[in-house]
Amino acid sequence: MLIQLGDIGDVVLTLPCIRALRETYPQARIIVAAWDKAAELLEDCPWLDQVIVVTKRSRSFFFETSLQIDFFRKLRSLHCDLAIDLRTGTRGAIMAFLSGAGQRIGFFADDGTLWRNRLFTSLLRRDYTPDLHVADYLLCLLEPFGIATEQRIPELAVAVDKQEKIRGLFEEAAVPQDKKIVAVQPFSLWQYKEWGKEKYVALIRWLVAEYGVAVIVTGSVAERERAEGIVRRCGAGCYNFAGKTSIASYAALLQKCQFFIGVDSAGLHIAAAVGTPTVGIFGPSSPVSWAPVGRQHLVVQKDFPCLPCREKGCDNREQSRCLDELPLQEVVAPLSVHLKQGYWF
Question: Does pTM surpass 0.85?
Answer without folding.
Answer: yes
